[in-house]
Amino acid sequence: MGRLERWRRVARAGPNVGDVLRAALFRVRGRAEPPAPSTGPAPSLTRLDALIDEFAAGQLVRWRVGGQPRPLPAAVDAAAYRIIQEALTDARRHAPGSAVAVRLRYDPAGLTVEVRGDGPAIPAAGLRARAQSVGGAVHAGPCPEGGWLVRAELPAPEDEADPA
């Protein structure tokens, strides 16, 4: 696979992944040029079905929503989407072809995101940083019955939601 094809695959992985890599390359090369802004849609749970469809090619991914879905603060919405995206990416990388289940649960205090899969546990450092950026927490590791679980608890009180 050529360099251009690898870059295209990275760009398809997420709207901001290419921007992050471009910025890192500029820093490594000692350049001060800022990366070009992303032109893709903003990460949002409103696009979750498209994200799941993207990962479902070659991997069984099921998802469900519990509680009453509602608008979330933009930062929490984006963090939840990115946590799911990163967990699915790690599942594909570390346990290709294994089944994955995504669950969202809305409650008055916020949103709980769970991504569970067969196969070995996935790294969670980047997931923790995303959750902490909005005042949340991530717990990740192997499940006693086998497989792995990533659980993110993101605060989003009903009265603080962004208007729809």
UniProtKB/TrEMBL annotation:
Entry keyword set: Kinase, Transferase, Two-component regulatory system
SUPFAM superfamilies: ATPase domain of HSP90 chaperone/DNA topoisomerase II/histidine kinase
Catalysed conversion reaction: ATP + protein L-histidine = ADP + protein N-phospho-L-histidine
Organism: Micromonospora halotolerans
Broad EC category: transferase
Protein name, UniProt field: histidine kinase
Enzyme Commission code(s) on record: 2.7.13.3
InterPro entries (alphabetical): HATPase_C_sf, Sensor_HK_TwoCompSys
